[in-house]
Write the structure tokens for this entry.
Amino acid sequence: MTPDALRKLLHGVIAFPVTPFRSDLSLDAAGLRANIRVILQHPVCAVVAPGGTGELYSLTPAEHLEVVKIAVEETAGKVPVIAGAGFNPPIAAQLAKQAAAAGASGILAFPPYYPHAEADGMIDYYRSIGEATPLGMLIYSRDSFHPDPRTVERIADAVPTLIAWKDGQGDIRRLSAIMHRLKNRLHWIGGAGDDMVSAYYSLGIRTYTSSISNTVPALSHELHVAASNGDSARLKQIMDDYVLPLYAMRARRKGYEVSVMKALMNEMGLAGGTVRPPLVMPTAAEMDELRALLKVPVAK
């Protein structure tokens, strides 16, 4: 798939499947397959595997390749598969190349392991990932990588295959400035969470990455539709009843953005499994709160 072809497909909900692990922390391949099949029963425009919700940084390169292959096999061309890559230039290039060979349609570039790097170094880092494959590349702005508009413009100039920018900070002021400077050079993706849909869509964004697609994929799509159509009443209802309480739990401890989703999936009979260190699973008391949340009606 060419970068332009991928860009044209990115409209609506991008799903980020978790990577389920068994109690011995081994990869649950069958569980991942089953989860992707559930997601694909609902409207999504792409699947990222593995991404941040998929615990990219806890996987070996061999496991990364297995996850990509499973996603490519299960999607079977219905939607593009975008593979995460990061750590450092040689490892990121390795992950990108093996994902391309396995049939991925694009690469989601994560920041490097080294935080607070100079802009010149970050440009070289993303250029090296872009040069690893001819696939379209998306950059995930998250953690300490919080560039100004000029730096984003320089990266876009240096990486011809860069097609999209996924915001992971939720800093609407800075994102608005970046979008104003680059305009249509990049496709803009809301990536800080389902709870940010209202803010992102107010800027004209019409694509977002959804963790809730792991548990209630129909609701992810409904958030997109309500925000796109300006249905503020329905949007507020979904946020108040389900999304904001869920995200409040996710914010309690570091890594809970993954752990809470896996715990919910386990309660729903899906393959959430456990997390790998240094992440931790919710406490017994928190599980009671999550079970109560499952009783909240989330559909019309």
Notes: The domain at 3-229 is CATH 3.20.20.70 (TIM Barrel). The chain has a mean pLDDT of 96.
